[in-house]
């Protein structure tokens, strides 16, 4: 640690003289050292060379590979200046090398797009969920999911517009379990003040940026008084610094019941890990299913985009019936993150227009369209808008 | 052991005292024995049952009042022993002792005040764990006359009621870091799975789904799942499958008709039962039952205090009244249960008297009055109104 910081200070001294030549090298050094320091204020620069971004792509299992190849197809077609670095992760292997390679690649590039990696039940319990390892190692503390009723998709509830911010690294997903006495298993749910303050702050900042008026904290503090009590307290503290935003709280069981009867009452919701899992799946079901909602995992330095409900879709893999919307919208979120706003809005537009065509709905929306038909239609819409595209 | 010696004493004296007071001895000694196979006899004297009534907070007292009124009107042979539970520690012990005495209880939800220190456990939780009411059974059915977005929902939810995330075991070793313990034990998981399959068999159900999150909580929920599988192997006529809780909740809001019987640990049970209650029409319609080996406590399915609508004459009495019907079934007064249930359903469907939570304008007293009318018109002996 000392060696690194001293080298960096040497560079700072040499820098003015070598400014023209080693300007880039300083950046490289900066990137290498940043990940070693805990509380760094130096954000790694985006992996953008020659105007083209490099993004890590993790195909995952099930429908992941085919959907991500469609994303690549659409990007290539729309001439999006993004190159993908594909990293395969084998879910059947017990070793951690694959996922560590993926993590290194994400550290290198800063941004990733991933499919869900299956957690095989046949492997011993010491083999942690690969997705979870990825999230905790990269400290992607905020999982953001925006559930919106899409025009063209008929659902039982209309006008839903809920933003769910879920703590992504601690809580019930700490993977800390032990069996001290045979037949009695203790699972630890960890809630820390730091992480709770961090996620609450993220939630309020995001609500302010997006012009949202209300943040609801979801908890079970009547039973888990210390744990969820601490979470709630942190949310209240942060809320006091945002007087323009209304803050209220609701117990998770009441929340889920209100969601299925009157989901329009919710605006922004912030919650610990497990409740976030359940609530986000309920909301995804309300707006039309797992094939429609994209999700994003944000950390301080990295961002990983995926489908919101993280399904592997093993049963429909390779059959050309999966809904590509979620993955394509996730790639649009990624483009927004990379500040390629025009490309993002053109693809998003094309997806909405295609959604309006009911004959192109895939099986999960009750239609008979295939994945490739939907993707073709999206590409045609992009072409018809007049932007620069490759051959169809 | 003095307890054991004392227990054998009534058995020795039984022939002598058999006509006089055998039951009194047995009931008193029962709760001192740890693993007794002795089931306490029902608190039934002179053909009338005694049931503990805990009004609770919020809408509990008024709804319990309606239950008493209705039972009195229908001449149901049940007497209520009312035990009020306040914030004091002793009150809940009194309530528990009353339930031990009577074996059956009807309760409203007792509020857990957030402002009190965290050493103060939830009273409802304390009651459930002390009496070992291990199975929480909620039957969510689409009721005729209540319009909902989903129809033909008929799900039986069996939720483990004593362990899991509700163990109330938390500590803060390092300031700012709280650890909550979620306990899953083999014996309790086997017990709840067995209960689920037995209930499914009794009610003629064909499928049991275990809800879990074993991909993340591999040891904990993995153990639960394993226990369910073991028990399932002893019930070959019942299909057993499992589903992860997030997928379950998503399927519930899109296609709830696919579920039959569901068994799960405590927290998932809480969430899933609330989702199902929301699907069939809300918290005012679904009754819940907590069964233990020796005791049974009946309450509303979603355990709401309803503080905001207390004493406004707006609460929906259906859930509490259906819970009282479950109570009547439990004490084997099936005829009365059927009459009251029929009256409630006719009020909902024919008379269309809906309270505010169902989108109507009727008051609680109107609904109860209509139910009493329906009971009287059905013919059995009733008091004058």
TrEMBL record, chain A:
GO biological process entries: isocitrate metabolic process; tricarboxylic acid cycle
SUPFAM superfamilies for this protein: Isocitrate/Isopropylmalate dehydrogenase-like
Gene3D superfamilies linked: Isopropylmalate Dehydrogenase
SMART domains given in the database record: Iso_dh (SM01329)
Subcellular location: Mitochondrion
CC cofactor: Mg(2+); Mn(2+)
InterPro entries assigned to the protein according to its UniProt record, in alphabetical order: IsoCit/isopropylmalate_DH_CS, Isocitrate_DH_NAD, IsoPropMal-DH-like_dom
Every Isopropylmalate dehydrogenase-like domain range: 54-378
A single MF term (Gene Ontology): magnesium ion binding
GO cellular component: mitochondrion
UniProt keywords, alphabetically: ATP-binding, Magnesium, Manganese, Metal-binding, Mitochondrion, Nucleotide-binding, Transit peptide, Tricarboxylic acid cycle
Quaternary structure (record): Heterooligomer of subunits alpha (IDH3A), beta (IDH3B), and gamma (IDH3G) in the apparent ratio of 2:1:1. The heterodimer containing one IDH3A and one IDH3B subunit and the heterodimer containing one IDH3A and one IDH3G subunit assemble into a heterotetramer (which contains two subunits of IDH3A, one of IDH3B and one of IDH3G) and further into the heterooctamer.
Record family assignment: Belongs to the isocitrate and isopropylmalate dehydrogenases family.
Protein purpose: Regulatory subunit which plays a role in the allosteric regulation of the enzyme catalyzing the decarboxylation of isocitrate (ICT) into alpha-ketoglutarate. The heterodimer composed of the alpha (IDH3A) and beta (IDH3B) subunits and the heterodimer composed of the alpha (IDH3A) and gamma (IDH3G) subunits, have considerable basal activity but the full activity of the heterotetramer (containing two subunits of IDH3A, one of IDH3B and one of IDH3G) requires the assembly and cooperative function of both heterodimers.
Protein name, per record: Isocitrate dehydrogenase [NAD] subunit, mitochondrial
Organism: Oryzias melastigma (Marine medaka)
Automatic annotation (TrEMBL), chain B:
Cellular localization per UniProt: Mitochondrion
Superkingdom of this protein's organism: Eukaryota
SMART domains: Iso_dh
InterPro entries the record matches: IsoCit/isopropylmalate_DH_CS, Isocitrate_DH_NAD, IsoPropMal-DH-like_dom
GO molecular function: magnesium ion binding; NAD binding; oxidoreductase activity, acting on the CH-OH group of donors, NAD or NADP as acceptor
Gene Ontology terms: cellular component: mitochondrion
Residues of the Isopropylmalate dehydrogenase-like domain: 50-371
Major subcellular location class: mitochondrion
Pfam families linked: Iso_dh (PF00180)
NCBIfam families reported for this sequence: mito_nad_idh (TIGR00175)
Assembly, per entry: Heterooligomer of subunits alpha (IDH3A), beta (IDH3B), and gamma (IDH3G) in the apparent ratio of 2:1:1. The heterodimer containing one IDH3A and one IDH3B subunit and the heterodimer containing one IDH3A and one IDH3G subunit assemble into a heterotetramer (which contains two subunits of IDH3A, one of IDH3B and one of IDH3G) and further into the heterooctamer.
Family: Belongs to the isocitrate and isopropylmalate dehydrogenases family.
Protein name per Swiss-Prot or TrEMBL: Isocitrate dehydrogenase [NAD] subunit, mitochondrial
Source organism: Oryzias melastigma (Marine medaka)
């Amino acid at each position: 640690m000392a060696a690194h910081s001293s080298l960096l200070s040497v560079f700072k001294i040499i820098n003015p003289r070598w400014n023209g030549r080693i300007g880039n090298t300083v950046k490289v050094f900066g990137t290498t050292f940043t990940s070693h320091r805990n509380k760094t204020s130096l954000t790694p620069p985006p992996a953008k060379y020659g105007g083209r971004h490099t993004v890590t792509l993790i195909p995952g299992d099930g429908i992941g590979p085919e959907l991500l190849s469609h994303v690549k197809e659409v990007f290539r077609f729309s001439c999006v200046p993004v190159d993908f670095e594909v990293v395969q992760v084998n879910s059947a292997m017990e070793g951690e090398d694959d996922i560590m390679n993926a993590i290194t690649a994400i550290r290198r590039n800063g941004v990733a797009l991933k499919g869900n990696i299956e957690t095989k039940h046949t492997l011993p319990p010491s083999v942690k969920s690969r997705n979870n390892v990825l999230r905790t190692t990269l400290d992607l503390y905020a999982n953001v999911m925006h559930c919106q009723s899409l025009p063209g998709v008929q659902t039982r509830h209309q006008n839903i517009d809920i933003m769910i911010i879920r703590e992504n690294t601690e809580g019930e997903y700490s993977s800390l379990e032990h069996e001290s006495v045979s037949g009695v298993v203790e699972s630890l749910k960890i809630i820390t003040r730091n992480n709770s303050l961090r996620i609450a702050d993220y939630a309020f900042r995001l609500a302010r940026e997006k012009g949202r008026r209300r943040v609801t904290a979801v908890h079970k503090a009547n039973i888990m008084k210390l744990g969820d009590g601490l979470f709630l307290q942190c949310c209240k503290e942060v809320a006091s610094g945002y007087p323009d935003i209304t803050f209220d709280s609701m117990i998770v069981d009441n929340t889920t019941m209100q969601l299925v009867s009157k989901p329009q009452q919710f605006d922004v919701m912030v919650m610990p890990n497990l409740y976030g899992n359940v609530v986000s799946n309920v909301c995804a079901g309300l707006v039309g299913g797992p094939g429609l909602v994209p999700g994003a995992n944000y950390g301080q330095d990295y961002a990983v985009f995926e489908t919101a409900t993280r399904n592997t879709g093993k049963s429909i893999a390779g059959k050309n019936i999966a809904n590509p919307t979620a993955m394509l919208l996730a790639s649009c979120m990624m483009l927004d993150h990379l500040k390629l706003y025009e490309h993002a809005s053109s693809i998003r537009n094309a997806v909405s227009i295609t959604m309006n065509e009911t004959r192109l709905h895939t099986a999960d929306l009750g239609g008979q369209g295939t994945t490739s038909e939907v993707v073709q239609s999206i590409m045609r819409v992009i072409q018809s808008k007049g932007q620069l595209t490759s051959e169809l | 052991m003095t307890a054991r010696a004392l227990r054998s004493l009534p058995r020795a004296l039984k022939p002598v005292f058999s006509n006089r007071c055998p039951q009194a001895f047995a009931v008193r000694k029962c709760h001192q024995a740890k693993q007794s196979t002795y089931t306490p006899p029902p608190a039934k004297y002179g053909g009338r049952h005694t049931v503990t009534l805990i009004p609770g907070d919020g809408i509990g007292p008024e709804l319990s009042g309606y239950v008493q009124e209705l039972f009195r009107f229908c001449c149901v042979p049940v007497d209520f022993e009312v035990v009020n539970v306040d914030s004091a520690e002793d009150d809940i012990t009194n309530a528990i002792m009353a339930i031990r005495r009577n074996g059956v209880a009807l309760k409203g939800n007792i509020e857990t005040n957030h402002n009190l220190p965290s050493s103060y456990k939830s009273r409802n939780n304390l009651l459930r764990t002390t009496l070992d009411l291990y199975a929480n059974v909620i039957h969510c059915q689409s009721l005729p006359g209540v319009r909902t977005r989903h129809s033909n929902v008929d799900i039986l939810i069996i939720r483990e009621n004593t362990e899991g995330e509700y163990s109330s075991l938390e500590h803060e070793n390092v300031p700012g870091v709280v650890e909550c313990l979620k306990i899953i034990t083999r014996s309790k998981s086997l017990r709840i799975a067995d209960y689920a399959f037995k209930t499914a068999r009794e009610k003629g159900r064909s499928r049991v789904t275990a809800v879990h999150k074993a991909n993340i909580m591999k040891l904990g929920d993995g153990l639960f799942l394993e226990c369910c599988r073991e028990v399932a192997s002893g019930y070959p006529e019942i299909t057993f499958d499992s589903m992860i809780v997030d997928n379950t909740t998503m399927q519930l809001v899109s296609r709830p008709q696919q579920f039959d019987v569901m068994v799960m640990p405590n927290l998932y049970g809480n969430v899933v039962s609330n989702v199902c209650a929301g699907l069939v029409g809300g918290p005012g319609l679904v009754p819940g039952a907590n069964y233990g080996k020796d005791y049974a406590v009946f309450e509303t399915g979603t355990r709401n205090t309803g503080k905001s609508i207390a004493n406004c004459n707006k609460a929906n009495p259906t859930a509490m009244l259906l819970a009282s019907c479950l109570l009547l079934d439990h004490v084997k007064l099936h005829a009365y249960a059927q009459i009251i249930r029929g009256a409630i359903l006719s009020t909902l469907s024919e008379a269309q008297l809906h309270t505010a939570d169902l989108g109507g304008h009727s008051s609680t007293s109107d609904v109860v009055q209509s139910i009493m009318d329906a009971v009287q018109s059905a013919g059995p002996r009733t008091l004058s109104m």
